[in-house]
Amino acid sequence: MFDKHKGSKPRQAHESPRDHSEPAAPAPSTPSATTGKVAVIGPGIEIDGAISGTENLLVEGQVKGTIVLSSYEVTIGKSGSVKADITGRTIRVSGKVEGDLTGEEKVIIAGSGNVRGNVTSPRVVLEDGAIFKGNIDMDPGEIASPVKAVERAPTSKSASASAGSGDAPKTADLALKSS
After folding, report:
1. What is the pLDDT of residue 139?
2. Main-chain dihedrals φ then ψ at residue 88, nearest 5 degrees
């Protein structure tokens, strides 16, 4: 019955042959952002200082300081409150953040999210209901030059005073207000 050498039975559909000639793939020496490892700062935890590491982070508690996880995902949950600059591969905010966000790939501010600070990332998502006050920079190299040119342009008063000459560039004061 258990002897392999006596008559062979056809294999069942759920059995799979194993080829022992191929070695198993070696486990990665450092966890990647896709391994699913997540460090959690629970709702009863308060941290004052710098946070860095090599895994994804979920903040449901309070953090003051800095969070730097450039290759990993940083999530601020609905009960999370952060007063810190945050750097991550992807940053998701469902709670409250006061500080600058730098997403290597993407920053998402959920409908329940509240952000007061600047966002720098190639992709930015503001979901319906999100509260945001700050600046968004989606291409730092391209945006820096025009801003400097505008800062050097004459103000509206000096432009209107010299408007008769036709030589001075015309500028306008623009303000963006969110409700």
Report:
1. 82
2. -155, 165
What six digits make up the tokens of 176? 């963006």
- The H or E element containing residue 77 is none
DSSP element (H, E) containing 124: strand 124-126
Residue 117 in domain? yes
Q: What pLDDT shows up at residue 33? A: 45
Which residue numbers in the chain have pLDDT < 50?
Answer: 11-33, 143-153, 156-166, 168-172, 179
Structure tokens at 161: 């005073």
148 within domain boundaries = no
Give residues with Cβ within 8 angstroms of 33, minimum separation 6. Answer: 56, 71, 72, 73, 89
Largest CA distance in the chain: 107
Residues 103 and 89: their CA atoms lie apart, in Å, by: 5
pTM: 0.61
The boundaries of the domain holding residue 127 are 38-142
Residue 65 neighbours by CB distance under 10 Å: 14
Structural domain includes residue 56: yes
CA–CA separation, 104 and 40 (whole Å) = 21
Distance CA(115)–CA(81), nearest Å, equals: 10
Residue 25: both structure tokens together = 């793939």
